[in-house]
């Protein structure tokens, strides 16, 4: 516990002294004196589990002209405490000290009450004769998963607080805010599963909450990687839209600064301290910011810094007369947070390669400084086969030479029949997860794996020279079957021609003839929602094959959405223990193979 004492100084302002072991608390208000004006204490605050951070809003109550002895009360209308640990218990004890001359209660008793701010919920109260000290108390636990602050109202009465007005006496109200975070915490709202990982696709803006921000702090600067963004006034840009590239604004509204507040005695806003607390520190609601991503911001690891300074130089109105804002303590803000901008893109070179040969796999926008698992899959058969682990740099980029499996190893051992001639092809993909298992567990990015198309070739064909040899002779189309359902095999002019299918047909050929039941799911039940969404998707694809123009893209877009919903159902079932990892991965591979073919069609313009 620490104890602060409010004392008189020569210029009539308050000064706070803290004992080494205790958090101080003689706050708002003390009878302070200058020259012959008498002084006495009014309230004492003892707080354990939190330390005083800021006090503000000097108040000045004084005796009516000619009243003897003359007196005045100078104190604080708002005091802010902050915890120092991520969890614990805060105890608030407020004592209304016994009446002593020259402070006299108006009436036969004095009262103190503790309320929860913004409500009439009474927490504790005490009443007694003026010569008796009265105490109210409240204890509450906290941790970082709960609310970021609690606000209370301490009310005393009867006390001649407005005795500068003939015959007037009223209660004194002091607001106490306890910030339940050891420091202001920035929480990026990129989605429920990955608060620090954004994309894909790369977002145009992001929103963030300020948890545990001091209500007396005015946020003045937001910077990404040391470059300040431009501030936009709140309310100009509708919610759920970007405030503009390289810009930021407060959401839902700009906070209400103290100089816009009229304090007790104001006719227009009699409860304006509550209004300030409700709107201070970030809008009339949960305080937050909205950031428009700079156009030049690339994928990788970035640092966000939010800075602020205390409101300063404020004069407000108290009972029709100017009084001083009087900030005491620290309300400055410097809070940093790292975030990872993901926009994974994968490339393979060459785009056609024999089993057992070496290819180059390159990627950008993956997990920075991470281990990126690479694998392959053949559309017609088999599940994913691990290839290698690529090491990404700070931006999430990598490039790695990878040896494909031999023709007699999975998945190629079940790709071509023994009668398939050398040079036969099979369509497939190279796949990359966004990061290793630890990265996915920590940040939960969704949308992977990411893929690049490749055509696999059965080795053993006679090497070509600089002279192009004619294709093998054929007597009919049936002799040209290369085993790839995604090519149109024909025999014009006695030579085999294998023409890749295009558009929706190139998607339809990816659908496995056995439906959505990979070998790993032989003894398991595919989630009904997944099967239902998969049937819807295949129906859209079949219709798209018979259409032309914009109708094809519209139908394939619906199919892609249905497949995504089906994939999400697989994830839910797997997390709930209703589906094994192997079966879930097998279903995901089938769905991803179809979606990989849809995306290029949707990207066509």
Tell me what the structure shows:
This protein is of the alpha+beta class and 605 residues long. The protein folds into four domains: 4-179, no CATH class; 185-336, no CATH class; 344-463 and 474-498, Sandwich (Immunoglobulin-like); 501-605, de novo design (two linked rop proteins), CATH 1.20.1440. 15% of the residues lie in helices and 36% in strands. The strands form nine sheets. Strands 3, 5, 6, 8, 9, 11, 12 and 24 form an eight-stranded mixed sheet that branches. The longest helix has 26 residues, at 550-575. The model is unreliable at 1-40, 159-170, 190-194, 265-270 and 464-469 (pLDDT under 50).
**CA radius of gyration:** 35 Å
- What general outline do the C-alpha atoms trace? elongated
**Low-pLDDT runs:** 1-40, 159-170, 190-194, 265-270, 464-469
Number of domains: 4
Strand content: 35-45%
Our count of helices gives 6
User: Average pLDDT, to the nearest integer?
Assistant: 76
Based on secondary structure, the structural category is: alpha+beta
Q: What is the strand tally?
A: 35
Oligomer: single chain
The proportion of residues forming helix, as a percent range, comes to: 10-25%
Task: Measure the end-to-end span.
Answer: 68 Å
Biggest sheet descriptor: 8 strands, mixed
């Amino acid at each position: 516990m620490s104890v602060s004492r409010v004392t008189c100084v020569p210029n009539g302002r308050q000064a706070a002294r803290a004992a080494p072991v205790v958090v101080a608390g003689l706050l708002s208000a003390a009878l302070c004196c200058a020259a012959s004006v008498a002084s006495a204490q009014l309230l004492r605050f003892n707080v354990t589990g939190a330390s005083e951070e800021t006090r503000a809003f000097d108040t000045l109550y004084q005796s009516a002209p000619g009243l003897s002895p003359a007196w005045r009360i100078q104190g604080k209308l708002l005091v802010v405490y902050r915890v120092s640990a991520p969890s614990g218990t805060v105890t608030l004890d407020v004592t209304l000290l016994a009446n002593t001359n020259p402070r006299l209660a108006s009436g036969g008793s004095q009262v103190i009450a503790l309320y929860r701010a913004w409500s009439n919920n009474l927490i504790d109260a005490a009443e007694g004769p003026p010569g008796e000290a009265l105490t109210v108390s409240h204890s509450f636990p906290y941790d970082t998963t709960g609310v970021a602050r609690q606000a209370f109202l301490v009310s005393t009465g009867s006390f001649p607080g407005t005795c500068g007005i003939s015959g007037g006496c009223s209660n004194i109200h002091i607001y106490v805010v306890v910030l339940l975070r050891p420091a202001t915490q920035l929480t990026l709202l990129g989605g429920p599963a990955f608060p620090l990982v954004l994309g894909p696709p790369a977002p145009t803006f992001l929103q963030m909450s300020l948890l545990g921000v001091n209500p007396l702090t005015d946020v003045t600067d937001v910077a990404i990687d040391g470059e300040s963004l431009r501030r936009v006034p709140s309310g100009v840009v509708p919610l759920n839209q970007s405030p503009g590239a390289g810009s930021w604004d407060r959401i839902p509204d700009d906070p209400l600064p103290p100089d816009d507040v009229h304090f007790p005695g104001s006719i227009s806003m009699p409860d304006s301290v509550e209004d300030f607390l409700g709107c201070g520190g970030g809008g009339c609601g949960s305080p937050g910011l909205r950031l428009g991503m700079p156009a030049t911001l690339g994928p990788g690891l970035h640092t966000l810094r939010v800075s602020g300074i205390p409101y300063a130089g404020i004069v407000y109105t108290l009972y029709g007369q100017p009084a001083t804002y009087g900030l005491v303590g620290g309300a400055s803000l410097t809070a940093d947070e790292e975030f990872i901008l993901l926009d994974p893109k994968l490339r393979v070179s060459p785009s056609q390669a024999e089993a057992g040969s070496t290819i180059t796999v390159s990627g950008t926008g993956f997990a920075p400084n991470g281990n990126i698992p690479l694998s392959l899959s053949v559309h017609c058969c088999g599940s994913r086969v691990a290839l290698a682990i690529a090491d990404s740099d700070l931006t999430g980029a990598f490039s790695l030479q990878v040896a494909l499996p031999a023709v007699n190893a999975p998945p190629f051992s079940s790709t071509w029949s023994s009668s398939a001639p050398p040079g036969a092809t099979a369509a497939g993909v190279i796949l990359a997860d966004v990061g290793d298992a630890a990265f996915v567990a920590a940040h939960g990015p969704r949308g992977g794996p990411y893929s690049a198309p490749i055509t696999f070739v059965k080795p053993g064909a006679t090497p070509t020279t600089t002279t192009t040899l004619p294709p093998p002779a054929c007597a009919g189309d049936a002799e040209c079957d290369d085993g790839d359902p995604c090519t149109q095999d024909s025999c014009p002019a006695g030579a085999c021609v294998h023409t890749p299918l295009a558009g929706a047909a190139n998607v339809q050929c990816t659908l496995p003839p056995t439906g959505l039941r990979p070998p790993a799911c032989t003894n398991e039940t595919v989630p009904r929602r997944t099967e239902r969404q998969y049937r819807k998707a295949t129906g859209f694809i079949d219709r798209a094959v018979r259409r032309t123009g914009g109708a094809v893209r519209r139908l394939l877009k619906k199919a892609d959405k249905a497949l995504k919903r089906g994939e999400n159902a697989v994830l839910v079932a797997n997390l709930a223990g209703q589906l094994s990892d192997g079966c879930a991965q097998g279903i995901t591979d089938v769905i991803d193979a179809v979606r990989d073919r849809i995306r290029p069609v949707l990207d066509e313009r």
